[in-house]
Design goal:
There is one protein chain. The chain is α/β, with parallel strands linked by helices. The protein is 50% helix and 13% strand. A hairpin with a 2-residue loop joins strand 12 and strand 13. Helix 14 runs antiparallel to helix 15. The longest helix is centred in the C-terminal third of the chain and has 47 residues.
Length: 765
């Protein structure tokens, strides 16, 4: 493989010691030959190459300009004669030779001919008159082959003769403003599209041809050139047909030529006179035409009065174009070298990413194992190691799962069973404040304080609820809460600390009564306990658990999709589809298994049992918490100084006051209270267990994916493999195009390495 790293641009100090030197001139000509060859080969499909393209309206004198410059006859007529690019490569030589060939760059149409069907035409000096006919044959061949009325394929004309300057010009079809009889309406836009390809090449010099007898402001090519080259640094306007200027109009054309009539062009204007149709009809030769041109500008007023004679004639135009070509080659070559390197690297990367098609059963099996292992490696990096691309802002799979598990935990710990004795808004609640047992409905919870409809700043006032009026609470400035009463009067509510309040167990009375057994009514009913636990688990915990499992399932599927993409399977869509399908199947089965495990976990917890000693501690805590709070309040402990002593009588009165309300509780209240304490204690134990074990089951599903996939993925038969590893036609075409591009770029690099000065030094190395 050719090394691109060795190719370097021309040293920046080259002009200071070589410009004007014969060896340097030879080197530039080598580069010119290199660029000509690359253009003919189609490298300009990928790299913008320096060139000089002749453009203008139909019958503007383009072909005549080229005929004069190359001193060869080109197809000429009143109608459109150029239907594809004609590249004329001129080179000074002691001998006369011409070669006309065809370079098809777009492939051939179905049923068309191949480029090899056109035999190169080689002519010597004696066959010089056959050049026009040969070019016409080559162009007709291209149009037949491509089945187009205008083609991008190139007629390549090499001219070697003593009179030639070292110069390459490209003749393009003339701009068509209207179509004639038998011509398609698409002719004009097709020609414009072809011309635009060259106009948009920043390294293309626009040789804009404009006849002197047509108003310059109506020139389409000048308008197009201004759009792509507003600074006019790569546009050279050439005025043709000065002999057809109307009498008295010479002054306007003179102003145009001298840059006085409009904004000047950076490279100035030039004027030539070619043979007219009458000259061609009477057989005037090119050489005679050039002599007539020289005589015309020397003798014809006002052109003979212009001091700067470099503005006139084909000879001066040749000199300008030769120097211009040297300039653009020198300026463009370093950039071309860099672009060749860059595009070669990119093409190699694309080709490597597409892979190659295994051609035997063993090769397919080996390739399959290689890609599967790469898939599993990428999958492990994602779901186990937590690897993410450096350019990605997304969280790793483990990080996403952690967030999902945290959301699940937050969801179930905020459910009723997790804190069943903690009242919420609209719940009945009770609290012992001092010596008073306060009962009421929670209207507001603010900053950890509870506000009941029965406890105002005036004290405890039981509320008679008839269902016709529902009191509402309003927060003022975040400091206090007011309640609107049935009489329309607002009253401020008294806050109660969260540690002193419990849910009123009265909500359990209907359930206890409904399930009352024919036994002594002194103990909580375990049937009610089990029913409540089972109902709340089913109602509150199953949905978050199902969501966590479903999200974990999707997380795995997406990770597998990403891993398949990273395993380099872009060229094998059936292989990727196979992995996607297998992934969905295995992940689905793992999810079903996990779902069964979660259901079993719920069934176990819906039949309450625990040997966790924290359960007993929780029961004791719930039974004594409100008593402790009531005693603290009765004894005013929070406001007493540290180490203060309290009289025994005060303590006795406080104890009596706290316990007195409880003596008045009914058996139903006591049973309900004990049942609620048991539910609260078990809820805290169960929620901790569920919050830990459900994510653990989902985590096990993630960890088991690779093991379960391995059990099935390698069971694929050779026949199935042959189908999975079949490349689609468009992928095969992309591989073929990438190989062709690399081959062309390799050829360009090889030619760059051959560029040498007479000293043996290669400025491109």
């Amino acid at each position: 493989m050719l090394g691109l790293g060795d190719v370097q641009p021309i040293p920046p100090d080259t002009p200071s010691y070589l410009e004007g030197n014969e060896e340097y001139h030879h080197f530039i000509q080598q580069i010119r030959t290199f660029i000509d060859r690359m253009m003919v080969c189609g490298l300009d499909k990928y790299i913008a190459l320096p060139m000089i393209a002749v453009m203008g309206d139909t019958s503007s004198g383009k072909s005549a300009l080229l005929s004069n410059t190359a001193e060869i006859e080109l197809p000429s007529a009143h109608t459109l004669t150029t239907r594809c690019p004609i590249m004329i490569k001129m080179k000074t030589s002691d001998t006369w030779s011409a070669k006309i060939s065809v370079k098809l760059r777009q492939g051939t149409a179905n049923g068309g001919e191949n480029a090899t069907d056109f035999n190169d035409i080689n002519l010597d000096k004696n066959g010089w008159s056959k050049i026009r006919e040969s070019i016409a044959l080559a162009q007709d061949f291209i149009l037949r082959t491509t089945r187009k009325q205008v083609a991008r394929d190139v007629v390549d004309v090499e001219i070697h003769a003593p009179y030639c300057v070292d110069l390459t010009l490209i003749d393009l079809p003339g701009i068509v403003r209207s179509t004639g009889r038998g011509e398609s309406e698409s002719l004009s836009p097709e020609i414009q599209a072809l011309i635009n390809d060259y106009l948009n090449n920043d390294r293309c010099v626009i040789l804009a041809v404009h006849p002197a007898n047509v108003d310059f402001h109506n020139s389409q090519i000048m308008q197009d050139a201004k759009k792509v080259d507003p600074q006019t640094r790569r546009t050279l306007p050439v005025i043709t047909k000065p002999d057809l200027i109307d009498n008295g109009a010479e002054g306007g054309v003179m102003d145009l030529l001298l840059g006085k009539k409009m904004d000047g062009f950076d490279r100035g204007f030039h004027m030539i006179k070619s043979r007219g149709q009458s000259d061609l009809d009477r057989g005037l030769s090119i050489r005679q035409g050039l002599e007539d041109e020289e005589l015309f500008f020397r003798q014809t007023d006002p052109w003979n009065r212009v001091a700067d004679r470099s503005l006139f004639g084909t000879s001066e135009l040749r000199r300008k174009l030769g120097a211009l070509q040297m300039e653009i080659i020198k300026d463009s070559f370093p950039g071309i070298v860099e672009e060749v390197k860059q595009q070669h690297t990119e093409a190699k990367g694309i080709l490597n990413s597409m892979g190659s098609l295994p051609d035997s059963a063993s090769a397919r099996r080996g390739f399959f194992h290689l890609k599967i292992e790469e898939f599993f490696q990428r999958l492990k990096e994602q779901i186990i190691d937590g690897k993410v691309p450096s350019s990605s802002n997304t969280l790793s799979v483990p990080a996403q799962f952690f967030d999902m598990a945290e959301t699940f935990k937050s969801s179930i710990t905020s459910t009723r069973l997790a804190a069943i004795d903690r009242p919420v808004v609209d719940d009945g609640a009770e609290a012992v404040i001092g010596c008073t047992l306060i009962k009421g409905k929670v209207l507001k919870i603010l900053n950890g304080k509870f506000f009941l409809d029965s406890y105002t700043v005036k004290g405890y006032c039981p509320v008679e609820r008839d269902g016709k009026f529902k009191p509402t609470a309003t927060v003022f400035q975040g400091k206090h809460v007011d309640m609107k009463q049935s009489n329309g009067v607002d009253v401020e509510l008294q806050p109660i600390d969260a540690s002193c309040i419990n849910r009123d167990p009265e909500w359990l009375h209907p359930m206890i009564k409904q399930r009352m057994p024919l036994k002594l009514q002194m103990f909580p009913n375990d049937t009610i306990f089990i029913d409540i636990v089972a109902t709340l688990i089913d109602r509150e915990w199953k949905e978050p658990s199902t969501k966590l499992l479903k999200d974990s399932e999707e997380l795995l599927k997406n990770a597998c999709k990403t891993a398949a993409g990273q395993a380099g399977l872009h060229s094998y869509p059936l292989f990727k589809a196979f992995l996607y399908e297998l992934t969905h199947t295995v992940v689905g089965e793992l999810a079903d298994t996990t779902r069964s495990s979660i259901d079993h976990l719920f069934n176990v917890n819906q039949s309450p049992y625990s040997q966790n000693k924290d359960l007993v501690n929780e029961v004791v805590h719930h039974r004594t918490e409100d008593l402790e709070c009531a005693l603290e309040t009765a004894l005013n402990l929070k406001s007493l100084p540290q180490n203060s002593s309290i009289p025994v009588s005060t303590i006795a009165n406080a104890i009596k006051a706290v316990f007195e309300p409880r003596k008045n509780k009914s058996v139903m209240d006591i049973i309900a209270g004990d049942l609620q304490n048991a539910l609260a204690a078990y809820g805290k134990i169960a929620v901790t267990r569920i919050a830990d074990e459900v994510p653990m089951l989902c985590k096990n599903m993630i960890e088991n994916l690779e093991k379960e996939m391995r059990k099935r993925v390698f069971a694929v038969s050779d026949m199935e493999l042959a189908g999975l590893l079949k490349m689609p036609a468009h992928v095969q075409r992309q591989i073929r195009e990438a190989k062709e591009k690399i081959e062309m770029l390799d050829q360009a690099v090889s030619m760059m390495k051959e560029l040498k000065l007479g000293t043996g030094e290669n400025p491109a190395m």
